[in-house]
Amino acid sequence: MSNSQIPTVKLLINGEFIESKTDQWRDVVNPATQEVLAKVPFATADEINAAVASAKQAFSSWRKTAIGTRARIFLKYQQLIRENMAELAALLTAEQGKTLADAEGDVFRGLEVVEHAAGIGNLQLGELANNVAGGVDTYTLLQPLGVCAGITPFNFPAMIPLWMFPMAIVTGNTFVLKPSEQDPMVTMRLAELALEAGIPKGVLNVIHGGPDAVNGICDHPDIKAVSFVGSTHVGTHVYNRASLNGKRVQCMMGAKNHAIVMPDANKEQTLNAIAGAAFGAAGQRCMALPVIVLVGESKEWLPELVAKAKTLKVNAGCQAGTDVGPVISPAALARITDLVESGVTEGATLDLDGRNPSVPGFEQGNFIGPTIFSDVSTKMRIYNEEIFGPVLCVLNADTMDQAIEIINQNPNGNGTAIFTRSGAAARRFQEDIDVGQVGINVPIPVPVPIFSFTGSRASKLGDLGPYGKQVVQFYTQTKTVTARWFDEDAEAGALNTTISLK
Q: Which chain positions lie within coiled-coil regions (predicted)?
């Protein structure tokens, strides 16, 4: 395909998909083949301002739109996503690399949030206290903030945008989305379906870009709230910069999730769960499982875990039977490989080396297979840095208390899990562990949307998480009204009565 034939990714501004006037473009590359799929623009400052202005103008009418009307749009939207699931998954696999099964899961977990948004009539409810004083009622209203913005990462280009703009929009806000410049195509298809579902022009806008676009969002005076999912480095920058500009901010960031394996756990189920959580999606998940702590006799399970990991098939995500697809880019592969080499240099035992796998027909792909280190210490780079690849670190502990101490000393707090048949051990674990999301025989404890994503400590900045009840609070301002109405026939003197709430 010649350069002139490569399609360009559009901007969405005021209900129209428009060609950017920028002179900065980036290739969208298939990570299994290095084929250039499209070119994505880095929007100009004028284009970013136009997107925000469109959202601001639309807010004046959208905030007054009946809640039932908003809900019905998202009922239609979830139907359209379901009808186009295969197309969305294929597009996602082509630009991101994950297997078709993982891609469908990516879309489906976002779809669940869209379904939750359709129930907004039961979510955006205020409170009422009747007759708090003589004839006085106090009640609250949950009102939209205005223009909100979202910055999303490459690893879930369907799910995470769907975590953000549906809940922001259904609560009465308008939205400016900046998807990852590495894989924006499936996000744009979701935006097309959103317009088809009936979202009015200006209510959803999409821009593209890098650091300048991120800073433009953080600095723009008309943006009231910013949602972010991505690396700790960028997330900390976004939180600090946007907060200093007076915005409400939520940032879901890096992780180093651990699981404890107790010797009484169901061995086969546990090993299957670990393999899927550590190596699925090529390890490119903030809720992946890159560290396990084998307690007591469970350390003897390591050879069986290695054997199970060896059976996983490394191939392009579009190929049937693939378990582990490519990582997103050559740069990501180089960084993962460097970390693997550091583990060897620092003295960890490389039980399974996934570097340089043979993938016939896809020799140019960014592939690394399942990789397992044992004898890992908490001082090593492979333990302390987020690898974001299919690399598992194995630590040992004599007791559950020692294992809990290891986890609690790690600064991150996105997710953790325990594998056990003991209810007493599981209960103590959930009480004593200092991590926001806990799995009991569940390796990736991402909650369904009726709850909220509750990562903690260094994995999160901001008090309120995405989706669920917390995000309704995030995207709305609570307004408290204290009201007293007088009977027209009451004595005139009553009009001068002083209200006392003491």
A: none
Task: Count CB-CB contacts under 10 A for residue 170.
Answer: 27
For 55, 175, 225, 227, 285, the CA distances from 71, given in Å and listed in that order, are 19, 17, 22, 22, 30
Averaged over 156-178, what is the pLDDT? 98
At residue 240, φ and ψ (nearest 5 deg) are -65, -45
Examine the domain organization and report whether 250 and 266 are in the same domain. Answer: no
Taking alpha carbons only, the member of 62, 33, 481, 102 closest to residue 277 is 102
- CA proximity to 207, closest of 144, 161, 155: 161
Partner residues linked to 36 by β-bridges: 29
Whole domain around residue 271: which residue ranges?
A: 258-409+415-440
Cβ(20)–Cβ(354) under 8 Å? no
231: Cβ contacts below 8 Å, ≥ 6 apart: 153, 253, 254, 386
Confirm if 101 and 313 have CB atoms less than 8 A apart.
no
Average per-residue pLDDT for the chain: 96
Instruction: Quick: pLDDT tens for 249-276.
Output: 999 999 999 999 999 999 999 999 999 9
Three-class DSSP category at 196: helix
Residues 6+ apart with CB under 8 A from 285: 155, 156, 444
Contact between 56 and 174 under an 8 Å Cβ cutoff? The reply is: yes
Q: Tell me whether residue 498 is in a domain.
A: no
Residues 223 and 358 grouped into a single domain: no
Residue at 5 is within a domain: no
For residues 473 and 432, membership in a common domain is answered with: no
- Tally of domains within the chain: 2
304 token code pair: 């069986």
Model confidence over 24-55: pLDDT tens digits? 999 999 999 999 999 999 999 999 999 999 99
pLDDT per residue as tens digits for the range 336-345 = 999 999 999 9
To 5 degrees, how large is the angle CA 113–CA 285–CA 109? 20
Q: Are 100 and 42 contained in the same domain?
A: yes
| C-alpha separations of 140 from 33, 400, 479 in Å | 55, 46, 5
DSSP state letter for 396? E
Q: Hey, which residues does 178 pair with through a beta bridge?
A: 151
Task: Kindly give, in sequence order, each residue whose CB lies less than 8 Å from that of residue 151, ignoring residues fewer than 6 positions away.
Answer: 178, 214, 217, 226, 227, 228, 229, 230, 238
Q: What is the pLDDT of residue 3?
A: 66
Tokens at residue 425, please? Answer: 């051990």
- Do 89 and 201 lie in a common domain? yes
For 133-152, what is each residue's pLDDT tens digit?
A: 999 999 999 999 999 999 99
Instruction: Please indicate, yes or no, whether residues 310 and 273 belong to a single structural domain of this protein.
Output: yes
Active site residues: 286
Checking if the pLDDT of 317 tops 50, the result is yes
Residues 238 and 360 grouped into a single domain: no
The pairing of beta strand 349-352 with beta strand 371-374? antiparallel
Same-domain check for residues 122 and 88: yes
